[in-house]
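Section 5: illustrative case.
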């Protein structure tokens, strides 16, 4: 049976939906949701298999690669110290709010060759990283420049975070996990959103599973992505 049903009550940052269920027919048309348990295999909650390997804009999910590279290279020491260009925000809040200037500056400091190496190691990017991919500078690098990803790759990265698999198991990878924590008090979720070039993302993990949500559309549809992602744990979205 489709639709949303449940008993609503207020807790902490947001409204928790007790017994909350969202049927597949209540998801927006064109949405894809992938889900993988800690010990299980990937399943398609909604969407078509044929869409999983289509090249897409990584949008601001690419900021995770910039953050990881900056942590690993010592440009960023922790998740709380204010970043240059972030108006007093540290790495965690900068990722949550997905602000561009600090990540553009970090990308410039890292340079295209180094950042391209981390992009390739991350597994996020489809195909080989071309020389000169960062010709548009840091402002373009914050959403991956001309690089592309796929729904399957985005999800594989989230599964890697959840399981602590290479290359995410090192010291920089552990600090990155701290930076990905989403605000809220009821449930611990680590995730990154993205919206650029008509691609909307939310990908990450929480108790017992990793989830990736994708939808094509304008930025104004971002709330639909958040609702679908948080809904996989039966909670309403919280705002950073």
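Designed sequence:
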């Amino acid at each position: 049976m489709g639709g949303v049903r449940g008993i609503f009550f207020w807790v902490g940052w947001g409204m928790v939906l007790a017994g909350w269920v969202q049927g597949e027919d209540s998801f927006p048309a064109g949405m894809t949701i992938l889900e993988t348990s800690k010990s299980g295999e990937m399943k398609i909650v909604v969407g078509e298999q044929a869409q999983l390997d289509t090249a897409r804009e990584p949008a601001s999910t690419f900021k995770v690669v910039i953050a990881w590279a900056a942590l690993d290279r010592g440009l960023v020491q922790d998740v709380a110290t204010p970043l240059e260009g972030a108006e007093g925000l540290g790495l965690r809040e900068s990722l949550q709010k997905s602000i561009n200037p600090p990540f553009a500056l970090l990308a410039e400091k890292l340079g295209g060759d180094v950042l391209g190496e981390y992009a390739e190691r991350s597994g996020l990017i489809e195909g080989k990283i071309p020389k000169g991919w960062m010709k548009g500078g840091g402002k373009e690098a914050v959403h991956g420049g001309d690089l592309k990803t796929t729904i399957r790759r985005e999800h594989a990265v989230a599964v890697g975070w959840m399981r602590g698999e290479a290359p995410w198991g090192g010291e920089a990878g552990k600090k990155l996990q701290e930076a990905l924590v989403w605000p809220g008090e009821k449930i611990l979720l680590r995730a990154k959103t993205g919206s650029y070039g008509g691609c909307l993302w939310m990908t990450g993990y929480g108790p017992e599973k990793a989830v990736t949500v994708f939808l094509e559309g304008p930025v104004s549809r971002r709330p639909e992505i958040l609702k679908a992602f948080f809904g996989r744990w039966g909670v309403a979205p919280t705002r950073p």
